[in-house]
Amino acid sequence: MTFGPSDPWTQAMEQHPHMDTVRAEINDRLAGNNVAALKGQSFDNNFSLNGAPGEGTLSIIGKNVFFLGRDAFATAGVISREWSTGSYRLQYTFTNVQNGIAVVSFNQSDTLSFSSATRIPFTSTCLIADYTFGSRAAPGNNVNLAWYWTETFHYTPKK
């Protein structure tokens, strides 16, 4: 399932707190000396609820509790799906960089599975194994999700 720029779920993913870190990274790259070389380059900055704090990972204490609680409410149908996000992969690409304007395309993706939905928080232990109903393609097993959009960034060209 793919969700484009006008989809409410994509718009919610654009506002995910991890995107502040990603946008700061983009602005740091645009402040560099060889901005023109960024055109066409892609970078990964994944978000993970697992493990210890590190690059691409929010602190387990604090913000992760918020995300885990939010996912539980979405699973129970208390809030809508666009407010539920877990770990995801993110790649951004500088599609155009010139004259103080950079256009960046974002591609986020995730795979929903029974195992990830039943994972014990802060561990890799799952209560239900993947492929409970047979092969990966069987109904009710993995669901691939993707969100995409573009943003424009402004920078001061180096002289």
List the keywords.
23% helix, five-stranded mixed β-sheet, 159 residues, elongated, alpha+beta
Sheet having the most strands = 5 strands, mixed
Helix tally equals: 4
The helix content is 10-25%
Order of helices and strands: EHHEHEEHE
Amount of beta strand: 15-25%
Overall number of domains: 1
Ends apart, CA distance between termini: 45 Å
What structural class should be given to the helix and strand makeup?
alpha+beta
Compute the CA-based radius of gyration: 18 Å
Report the average pLDDT across residues.
77
Morphology: elongated
What does this structure look like?
By secondary structure, this protein is an alpha+beta fold. The chain has one domain. About 25% of the residues lie in helices and about 25% in strands. It is built from four helices and five strands, in the order E-H-H-E-H-E-E-H-E. The protein has helices spanning about 10-15, 20-30, 65-75, 115; strands spanning about 1-5, 40-45, 90-100, 100-110, 145-155. Strands 1-5-4-3-2 form a five-stranded mixed beta sheet.
